Amino acid sequence: MNPMEEAVSLPAGEEAADHGYTGNKDAYLRRLKRIEGQVRGIARMVDEDKYCIDILTQVSAVTKALHAVSLGLVEEHIGHCVVGAASEPDPAARAEAIDAKVKEAADAIGRLLR
């Protein structure tokens, strides 16, 4: 099961922020805390003078985990923010909003690829 697909319900009376990832916020936080623990483990490995290839293997695992989080957030942005911009009733404002949200996504993807 993909933890990014878990739904999160808010307590009665609480409003969700208008972000695409809000419904999966707890899953993202759990995943990021797991990654944080992995990074601490890597620091411990360096402190304990572990074999460099073993450290690099763990760095690769953390990098892959961060990429998975990043791709999930990009997908949430496109599915929520870009699609939301497309529902703007005013055609001129809609075109401008779509362009802005698509540019944000493209810029974010570009940063991920650097």
Percent of residues in helices comes to over 70%
Average pLDDT for all residues: 85
Amino-to-carboxy terminus distance: 30 Å
Total strands: 0
CATH architecture: Up-down Bundle
Explain this structure to me?
This protein is mainly α. It has a single domain (22-113), classed as Metal-sensitive repressor, helix protomer (Methane Monooxygenase Hydroxylase, Chain G, domain 1, Up-down Bundle), CATH 1.20.58. It has helices at residues 25-47, 52-86, 91-113. The longest helix is centred in the middle third of the chain and has 35 residues, at 52-86. It is elongated and about 60 Å long. Mean pLDDT is 85; it is low at 1-16.
Short key terms for the protein model shown above:
single chain; 114 residues; mainly alpha; Methane Monooxygenase Hydroxylase, Chain G, domain 1; 3 helices; 71% helix; elongated
